[in-house]
Write a structure and sequence with these properties.
The structure holds two protein chains of two kinds. Chain A is an all-alpha fold. Helix content of chain A is about 70%, strand content about 0%. Chain A is built from 20 helices and no strands. In chain A, helix 3 packs antiparallel against helix 4 and helix 3 packs across helix 7. Classes of the chains: A mainly alpha, B alpha/beta. Chains A and B meet through helix 1, helix 9, helix 19 and helix 20 of A and helix 1, helix 8 and helix 9 of B.
């Protein structure tokens, strides 16, 4: 169930009230019930798969506590489950198997996200960072806790599972902070991503596709989708973090104003942080990271970004998006000295490249893109000015969010001092404003991955 | 994280804090929402519905001298598709763009408020999306139990199923926001294709069986029938692709079947089905007739009404008592 839907927002208070009213020992059980209520929008099939895979990953440690081979086998199994549901048609189509053409691929909700979390669990046990979780309830919630089961953040197990094992105490300050973060996320998702941008961006790309690349300005298409996907996914992540805090749990933040990043390596410390840090820790470093010479480092960077691209979806356009980001990282490394003298130029240059990389991410057909970028007027046309203005607006918005983030510790103190009745009134007014913007059923973009 | 203390007496509620907090939020939310709904309803005629007000004034002006025989009530399909000069020269087109069934109690109240305004026959049409979508313009008019039942039944099928109950179909604040958005959208840069786009196949509309919509039709018909007014349902033409799409999507198929059952139950024989009457070329989009299409369908409707005894020559029995509310 999308967090930006009326039904979720109407159900959330009930879930919270019952959760905090129950004795502490019962709260984990209620969280499973609450998460089931939210997840059931995806249907029994998805829930059964999630339950089965989770039970297997937990149960194997109970049956074979010392077997390293069992852990390796589980990681392979988790990857195969992901591959079966997400990549089998892609593989079949590229191998020329005709039967794949008639199948419709329905990816179970949150599969890409919880597979990575299950792998984290096996790896952390193998590395001795944590011991196998003794409680299935807590382990299940590590995967299934509803604020993050649809599209992350991808949580690391050692701290997160412990918070379920220990349980949480009611803290008014934490609740208020959670409410404020969630409200900000809802504003970005409902008003900016869905209400303002979704139809407009859909129209721009619709024109691109209808004309087979003969119309459209590359920069405008890139910046417009860059703005939409940021508002959409960072909005979702803020709602997840905020709702998590309202239940007493701290979820990792996924975004730190990526459009203020001065280069690709910084961009990936600011964009979808829980995914990029997962790829760094579980793919890049095991591959040797930057410890095996310059050429190997470049290869590792490219491999990680290709995997990151493929993780988003079984399409060559996503692979190409990953390739572009891999190339940007290599380019940044190779030209480090040049950029030191001109940081502003570096910022503008790489931000333009990030925006252009959204083209393959959003477009459905690679052929349309090739036709687009081959046209001279796709780069310099009357739309170039508005594209630059839009980018300036996106950067200013990011700057504003950055200022908010810096002021956060002071805001926390002030928020705690707001009288409860005034806070309730402000929350109600905010709810009214936010809910009134819900016009259509719009999924979060990352729910599809 | 450091525990933050509360500064009001609320804290004393202890564990019940969350419940008290959300009760307050809902109270404020409900109050603010109700105030806005009522405020909007008061200004609607002046700010958002000038064309509708003019239409009602034109209807009332002629009716003062000689009552209309037929009033055709409905949405934009009626507004642009029904030529009353061909259907019944003594009839008036009360169609209005965006009208949905939640407007019907208001229309019934107005038609029955003075004998002069009361027609003998009322024709009624809503295109399927106005019956199967959740955007009600007058959420205060919704039958609460039916709307609550719809919301609960569609909880998973449609993630905004509680919208009509919670925020009045968002018709109010969103209407205001739409005014801003419309200006903003014209300011946003766009580009039209120099290459003609291929004709897109009709998308399957996401329509849901909503008991509340049909309860409103039922109440409208009963209320007018009590006052001696005959109400007939008219299915206006739709594009073949749209009709096919309606039959293809499982949700919309369920809606179409429910619509058929309920309309049959409410209107019985007082129904005229023209849904497949027009060739696609006589429709400007999925449901709206072109001027040529309007002429064809209006002539056919006149013929069918005559066959049903509701044409210009027909008489309708006076009711035993007229209830004016």
């Amino acid at each position: 169930m999308p967090f930006s839907s009326v039904n979720f927002l109407a159900t959330l208070p009930l879930l919270l009230v019952v959760y905090w009213a129950l004795p502490r020992a019962w709260r984990r059980g209620w969280l499973i019930v609450a998460s089931t209520i939210v997840y059931m929008a995806a249907g029994w099939r998805d829930l059964t798969l999630l339950l089965a895979v989770t039970a297997l990953n937990w149960g194997a440690h109970r049956l074979f506590p010392r077997a390293r081979a069992a852990r390796t086998a589980l990681i392979v199994f988790d990857v195969l489950v992901l591959a079966w549901f997400k990549y089998r048609l892609f593989l079949a189509a590229n191998l020329g198997l005709a039967s794949a053409a008639h199948e419709a691929l329905i990816i179970p909700l949150g599969l890409s996200f919880y597979t990575f979390q299950l792998i984290s669990y096996q790896v952390e046990i193998a590395q001795g960072i944590m011991k196998a979780c003794p409680s299935f309830e807590s382990f299940f919630l590590y995967i299934f806790f509803f604020p993050h089961h649809q599209a992350g953040p991808i949580m690391r197990p050692h701290a997160f599972i412990r918070s379920f094992l220990e349980g949480r105490r009611w803290r008014l300050g934490r609740f208020k902070i959670g409410l404020a973060i969630a409200a900000w996320g809802l504003f970005k998702k409902i008003w900016l991503a869905d209400y303002l941008l979704s139809r407009w961006v859909g129209g721009l790309y619709g024109t691109l596709e209808a004309s087979h690349g003969a119309s459209g300005n590359a920069l405008l298409l890139g910046v417009a989708y860059g703005a939409q996907i940021y508002a959409d996914f960072s909005g979702y992540s803020d709602i997840a973090v905020g709702v998590g805090r309202m239940f007493g749990f701290k979820l990792d933040r996924n975004f730190h104003q990526p459009y203020l990043a001065s280069g690709p390596s910084e961009f990936w410390r600011r964009w979808h942080v829980t995914l990029s840090s997962w790829l760094r820790d579980y793919v890049y470093i095991p591959l040797g990271g930057n410890r095996r010479g310059a050429a190997r480092t470049k290869l590792n960077l490219m491999l990680v970004m290709l995997i990151g691209g493929l993780w988003h979806g079984a399409q060559w356009t996503f692979v190409f998006w990953g390739f572009l980001h891999g190339a940007y990282l290599i380019l940044e490394q190779a030209t480090q000295r040049v950029w030191k003298r001109v940081p502003a130029v570096k910022y503008l240059f790489f931000q333009a490249l990030f925006m252009l990389a959204w083209l393959p991410f959003r477009a459905h057909r690679a052929a349309d893109l090739f036709a687009l970028v081959a046209r001279a007027d796709a780069w310099l046309s009357p739309q170039t000015g508005p594209a630059l203005l839009l980018f300036a607006a996106v950067a200013l918005f990011s700057k504003f969010e950055d200022a908010l983030e810096r002021a956060f510790p002071r805001l926390v103190v002030r928020l705690a001092a707001v009288p409860d009745v005034a806070f309730a009134a402000a929350t109600a007014a905010a709810s009214l404003l936010l809910i009134s913007g819900i016009k259509y059923e719009v999924m979060f973009i990352y729910q599809r991955f | 994280m450091k525990s933050c203390s509360s500064t009001s007496g609320f804290r004393r509620l202890g564990r019940g804090y969350a419940a008290a907090f959300f009760a307050l939020v809902f109270a404020f939310f409900g109050l603010a929402n109700e105030v806005l709904l009522h405020a909007y309803a008061r200004v609607e005629g002046r700010v958002f519905g000038r064309a509708w007000t003019q239409k009602k004034e034109a209807y009332a002006a002629r009716a003062a001298a000689r009552p209309w025989r037929v009033a055709y009530v409905g949405d934009s399909t009626v507004d642009v598709g029904a030529r009353m000069d061909l259907i019944d020269p003594d009839g008036f087109n009360l169609g209005r763009s965006g009208m949905d069934p939640s407007r019907l109690p208001g229309v019934a109240r107005w038609l029955l408020c003075a004998p002069a305004l009361r027609p003998r026959v009322v024709l009624l049409t809503f295109e399927p999306s106005h019956l199967g979508e959740d955007a009600y313009a007058e959420p205060l008019a919704l039958p609460f139990a039916a709307a609550l039942g719809d919301a609960a039944r569609l909880y998973y099928a449609q993630s905004n199923s509680f919208k009509p109950l919670l925020c009045g179909g968002c018709g109010y604040l969103t209407s205001l926001a739409d005014l801003v958005l419309a200006r903003l959208e014209t300011a946003l840069p766009g580009e039209t294709s120099s290459v003609p786009a291929p004709a897109a196949p009709a998308a399957a509309p996401k329509l849901y069986a909503r008991a509340a919509s049909f309860r409103l039709l039922e109440d409208f018909r009963r209320r007018l029938a009590d006052a001696g007014v005959r109400v007939l349902w008219v299915d206006l033409p739709m594009r073949s692709g749209f009709r096919r799409a309606l039959a293809e999507s499982p949700t919309s198929r369920a809606f179409a079947s429910y619509e058929e059952d309920r309309l049959a139950a409410i209107f019985g024989p007082d129904r005229v089905d023209l849904s497949a009457l027009l060739d696609d070329r006589l429709l400007v989009d999925d449901v709206h007739a072109s001027p040529e299409g309007a002429e064809v369908l209006s002539r056919e409707l006149a013929r069918r009404l005559a066959a049903l005894g509701a044409g210009p020559g027909a008489t309708v029995a006076e009711p035993a008592s007229i209830k004016v509310r």
